[in-house]
Predict the structure.
Amino acid sequence: MASIRASVSESHASDLTRLIYEKGSAILGTKDRFRLTLRERDTDFFQTYIQREDGITKLAKLDENLADSQRNIRDNATLFERRLKELPEADRLQLAQFAVTRCYLVVVATPDLDSAYRIFSVFNSRGLDLAPTDILKSEIIGGIPEVQRDVYTKKWEDAEEDLGRDTFTDLFSHIRMVYRRLKPKGTLLKEFKEHVTEVKQPVKFIDQVLLPMTTAYEDILGVCPRKITG
């Protein structure tokens, strides 16, 4: 919607803005209410460079010094912008109308995480695979008391952002090897759960295993991250 809004006349753009967020009112004392929110660390970026009226224009001017998730947002928006320019404005508006009136969100619930992963794998077979670290994050962070969960989610995501998504997954393979001390005989997910005993103590795993090994791996690779605190 934001990319289409950036490619049509102002009169149509205002209609599209109402589909992206509901503007607040100083008289009523209400704030802007966005219809889609990302995880906390990307929320402001998404609002500033996608959801706000002039966001796409600002996005094109950003340099390369972005986190993986934010770079993906920029690259996706750039792709949309390029493809939309190939269409007449009437077709862009028809596309927006189709997306709003003919597309639906379907919620699928499962009884356990294994079922969720299997269903996700089937649904997402043509998209980006769910990494083992995504599943481990869900289980490990989910095992931390709610009052501490935001703090440890940030620690995890800081480590992932410093290394990058692919390198972060590689780190988990190395951690598995440190504990397993044998060549892999099963999936990373299965062997990690079986042999990395601290996983059953989520706080201990993050503070005493994940963060120190992230720092060590960064030193080995010559990465220059922000300071990660345990």
The chain has two domains: 2-102, 130-221. The two ends are 41 Å apart (CA to CA).
